[in-house]
């Protein structure tokens, strides 16, 4: 549904990625009129350049590895790179967002295409994107009766390395949307994108060099990053830790790229067909018009747990009008956590302004009646999965983070290969799991799983952490035999129950 100039809605959401869609859907479900503004594709980064295509690229290699590790299964041989890329195109809709557009329409949510920015309180200006097909030259003004939600996500950051920008390196977008597999690839970075794309392109036949300034997956337990380093090297990836990129040279765009690397006291040059830089992202707040409502630009939007933006004028009763969720807040940079924040933001807007649920004012922070309307999991139960081989999955803080926060924790670790379910999965099954127990409250506060399909074991730990399930009750959650989840019984035994 297209909108004409100067239209009014109850709620305006800037950004139609999964986060913005969730906020819009939750607000719209209670009868509020909602418009979503999107400058690119409906479905956002996750659908076309991040989660969906990256996991699609990683899946064939994981299946091949599982087949090779299973006795009696014929070695499937090398991957068909063209077929993998074609499947990637299918899962991303080949860049066609008409299905997502139809979903918005079915939910009664208006779609306004163009670049949205605030020009004053509750007013969003939408400028047409050149070449979008919707460029009729008209700039639209959308007025929000109740609230504006900013869900503009984040963008890759290139470090200030001489010659890097001029070399036109890949970022995550180009890596997940590539039309062919380069013969060789240099990956700069040690986080999720760097590790996953190094895995995927090694699987697809590229000769990969990974350059990281420190340990891999610094946000996870150290043993997780070490397991990924070992696996990448076994897969043929040249992993170099404590490597500092000092210069990049690419005389001809599309030609080979040379990266100068400092390792210890030595300097070396690495040349490859392509270069992927995955060294971090920044919230997209530079051109959202935040200065028009008295907020700083090009920095994360500071929100409370209701996802209301701090520092803006409020209506009678302290009701906020500006909300933000997802990467743009700088809270937790994952799609699933951003969608959670979007649901919170949409529900809060609906409760404050909805025709059936309107609340006259905001309650004191932490009010029990509003507990479900607070994104508390951002602090205590953040979840993360890295789809490398082995997969790495964790919830809550690492052991170091927990101790730094003053929590009295005990780490209980177990070798997953010792669990009966591992032996029937593969004779070479390898993995490790660890839980963090708050010894005063006798509840779990964190857990990490490293191994094949570790992501599938995470949600049980998440439920235990969020639910603050006492260990003497968790002991009665009997795991099925023979599955790898039997590790939960081993945790209890190791702890002394």
What does this structure look like?
With 497 residues, the protein is of the alpha/beta class. The chain folds into three domains: 7-43 and 97-155 and 282-378, FAD/NAD(P)-binding domain (3-Layer(bba) Sandwich); 165-279, FAD/NAD(P)-binding domain, CATH 3.50.50.60; 390-495, FAD/NAD-linked reductase, C-terminal dimerisation domain (Enolase-like, domain 1, 2-Layer Sandwich). 29% of the residues lie in helices and 24% in strands. The chain has 15 helices and 21 strands. It has helices spanning 18-28, 44-49, 51-68, 81-91, 98-106, 172-177, 192-203, 222-234, 335-353, 377-380, 399-404, 420-425, 458-467, 471-474, 487-495, and strands spanning 7-14, 34-38, 110-113, 115-120, 123-127, 140-150, 154-156, 184-188, 207-211, 238-240, 243-249, 257-263, 266-272, 274-277, 281-283, 322-324, 383-386, 391-395, 409-415, 432-438, 443-451. Strands 1, 2, 3, 4, 5, 6 and 16 form a seven-stranded mixed sheet that branches. Strand 20 and strand 21 (443-451) form a beta hairpin. Helix 1 (18-28) runs parallel beside helix 9 and helix 3 crosses helix 4 (81-91). It is globular and about 65 Å long. The mean pLDDT is 93. It comes from Isoptericola halotolerans. This is Dihydrolipoamide dehydrogenase.
The residue ranges in which pLDDT falls below 50 over 5 or more consecutive positions are none
Shape estimate: globular
CATH class category label of the largest domain: Alpha Beta
Summed over residues and divided by their number, the pLDDT gives a mean of 93
Distance between the termini: 59 Å
Largest sheet: 7 strands, mixed
Q: Which structural class matches the secondary elements?
A: alpha/beta
